[in-house]
Amino acid sequence: MLLNGEKKRINIGYEDFKETVDGGFYYVDKTMFIYDLLRNRGKNNLITRPRRFGKTLNMSMLRYFFDITEKQNAYLFDGFMISKHYDELKGHRNAYPVITLSLKCAKKGCYEDAVYWLCKEIQRQFRKHRYISDCDRVDSGDRDDFKKIIAAEPDVRLFAESIKLLSSCLAQYYGKNTIILIDEYDVPLEDAYFCGYYDKMVSFIRSLFESALKTNPSLEFSVITGCLRISKESIFTGLNNLAVNGILSPRYSGYFGFEEDEVKDILEYYGVQEKFETAKRWYDGYLFGNTEVYNPWSIMNYVADLCDDPNSIPASDWVNSSSNSIIKTLVESADDATRDAIEQLINGGCVKTPIYETVTYGDLGNDSENIWSFLFFTGYLRLKELVTSGEETGDEAIYSLAIPNLEIKSCYNSIIKRYFESCKKSVNRDDLYKAILSRDAEEFSEQITELLKKSISYHDNGEQFYHGLIAGLLAGNVHYRMASNRETGTGRSDLILYQNDLFVNAVIMEFKVCKANEAADKAAERALRQIDERDYAREARDMGYSNIIKFGVAFKSKVCYAVTE
Questions:
Q1: Which among 71-75, 322-326, 456-460, 487-491 has the top mean pLDDT?
Q2: Of 130, 321, 460, 473, whose CB neighbour count within 10 A is largest?
Q3: CA distance 376 to 356
Q4: Cα–Cα distance between 563 and 441 in angstroms, integer?
C-alpha cells in the first residue's frame, strides 16, 4: 500500500507477480507476453534468456493469468496492457489447471541432495492439489499413485513420471487440459557439471520431461525457461513439437529485460534521469532478436542505490549475484589462442565464431569454440554483428561477439586478476632471488616471461603494471628491505633491494616498456645505462653496501628481457 505522494517501491528480488502488484512495486508492464504467447505458442515452448532477466517473474505472471485456482486474483491484471484484451482472452483467463515447477531448488553440491530437493518441489505441487485424492472424477488408480507421491520419500524411480501423473489428475478433475510451467530447467545441469554429477542429473531431468511433455495427452501446452537450449544431450529427445525462442529469435524479444524507453521511464520516475548515460554504459549492450535490452536486475539495483545516494557509483550487481563459473572455466583452461581472444575482448575488440544453439554443459571441454556460445547465451557476451551468413557457401554462419558493457568487463577483469594472482603464487621466489643475486639475467627473464605467458592481460601493459608485478614477487623476503621509487643520485630509482643487517648485497632495478619498434634488449640496455647516468647506486654506496647489482629490465607485451653488469 502506498501513502500519498510516495513513490512505488523498487523491485529487487521479488519474483511473484501478485506480490509485486499488491506490494506497490514499480512494475515494467510485460503483460502482453501473455497475448503473444497465446497467438504464437507451440505445444512446448522453450524460452532461453540469461539469468535474472525476468524469466521467473514472467512465469509467475502466466500462472496468475491462466490458473483456474487463481480466479480471486484476476484483478492483478487490471490497468495493464493485457486488460485491453480481456474480452478476446476470456476463454483462457483463469481457465486451466496449472503446474508450476522451479528447478532452481536443485542447485546443490551433490546429486543426492539435488534430487531430494527437486522431488520435494514436486511434492509441494501435489500437496497444493491434495483435494484431488478424494475426488471420484479421478481414476482410482491415479488417486492411489497420487497419495504415494505425497507420502513417499524422494525416489528417482517413483518421481520420474510424477509430473505427467499430476497433469492427468488435474485434467480429470477440472475437465480441462493442464498447462505446465517449468522455470530455470537447466540450473540443476549447470550445478551438476561444475560439481561432477552431470550425466546422472541429465538422466533424471530427461525422465521428468519426456513423460510430462512428450507423451502426455493431458497437456494443453508448456512453457520452459532456462539459459541454454539443450537438445543434443537428449533431454528433449523426440520432442518434435518444441518451439524454441532463444536470444537470436525476434519472438518475445522485448519481454525479458528492459528496453531503452523503459529504462528512461524508470530513471525519470525516480528523479535520476541524468544518470541515463552512465546506466547505458554499465548495463546496456544486449541484443535479443532485434531488440536492444538492458539488464533489469542491475538497473533496479542501480536506481535503488541512487535513491539512497545520488552520488552512488554503478556496481556489478548482476555479476556479483552468481559464481561466474563459466568465465572462471574459460580463463583457467585457456590456451594461447583463447588468451589472445580474451585480451581482444577486454580491450574492446571482438571474437569471431560460430554460435552453437544446441551447446551443452557436456560440450564445455570438447572444443574451445563452445565456450563462446556459452558466454553468449548466458549474458557474458553480446552479438555485435553477423560477419558471414554462409548462405551462399553452405558454411557455418560466423558472428562477431563482444563484451556487452562495463559491468561485464569488470567481471572479466576481476576473475583474470584473481587468476593472475594465483599464477604469481606459483613462482618460486627463492629461485628468483637466486637468479638476481647471481646476476643471471637470462634465468630472471625466463621466469618472468613464463609467468606473463600464463597470464591474460587485463591491463594496458604500462610500466606501472610491470613495476608492481616485480615488486610484488620480490616482496616479503625477511632478509631484504625494498625501496620503490626512492630518490637517490639525480633521480628516482624504480626498485632497490637492500640486504638487512649484513650490508653486502644491494640490487638496483630499472624498468622500461619498449617503445614502438624498439627491441627488448635495446630497451633493457637503456634502462641499465640510466642506473649509471643518474647514479642510483649512490645511497647504497653511502650506506656501505659492497656488492651492488644492477639490472636493466625491459618488457614487450609478454616478454621480459633483462641485462646486468
A1: 71-75
A2: 473
A3: 10
A4: 5
Residue 383: what residue type? L
Cα–Cα dist 379/321, whole Å: 13
Supply 32's cell numbers. 502482453
Query: Where is pLDDT greater, at 359 or 96?
Result: 96
Alpha-carbon gap, residue 513 to 461, rounded angstroms: 8
DSSP annotation of 546: S
C-alpha cell at 382: 553480446
Q: Which residue has the higher pLDDT, 445 or 336?
A: 445
By C-alpha distance, which of 239, 286, 293 is closest to 46? Answer: 239
Q: Cβ neighbours of residue 175 under 8 Å, at least 6 residues apart?
A: none
Task: Enter the C-alpha cell of residue 558.
Answer: 609478454
- pLDDT, one tens digit per residue, over 536-561 is 999 999 999 999 999 999 999 889 99
For residue range 197-246, list pLDDT tens digits in order.
988 888 888 888 888 998 899 999 999 999 887 654 456 666 667 888 99
Residue 438 has pLDDT above 60, yes or no: yes
Whether residue 508 contacts residue 545, with contact meaning beta carbons closer than 8 Å, is answered with: no
Q: Which of 168-172, 213-217, 295-299 shows the lowest per-residue confidence on average (mean pLDDT)? A: 213-217
In what order do the strands lie in the sheet containing 351-353? 351-353, 398-402, 382-388
Strands, DSSP E only, in 22-108? 44-48, 98-102
The answer for residues whose C-beta is within 8 angstroms of residue 507's C-beta and 6 or more apart is 436, 437, 480, 495, 496, 497, 549, 550, 551
Q: How far apart are CA 352 and CA 399, in angstroms?
A: 6
Strand duo 505-513 + 547-556: pairing: parallel
Q: In the predicted model, is pLDDT for residue 359 greater than 80? A: no
Question: Which H or E run contains 484?
Answer: strand 480-488
Least confident of 154-168, 215-229, 268-282, 387-401: 387-401
Q: Whose grid coordinates read 561444475?
A: 194
Whole-angstrom CA distances from 205 to 42, 186, 363, 529 are: 21, 9, 18, 68
Half-sphere exposure of 247 (CA within 13 A, CB side): 31
Beta-strand pair 505-513/491-499 = antiparallel
For residue 536, count CB atoms less than 10 angstroms from its CB and return exposed for 0-12, middle for 13-18, buried for 19 or more: buried
Radius of gyration of the chain (CA): 30
Residues forming a β-bridge with 9: 25
Question: Does pLDDT of 4 surpass 50?
Answer: no
Grid cell in block for residue 364: 564445455
User: What residues does 244 pair with on adjacent strands?
Assistant: 46
Cβ pair 415, 327 in contact under 8 A? yes
Per-residue model confidence (pLDDT) at position 327: 84
Residue 285 C-alpha cell reads as: 549492450
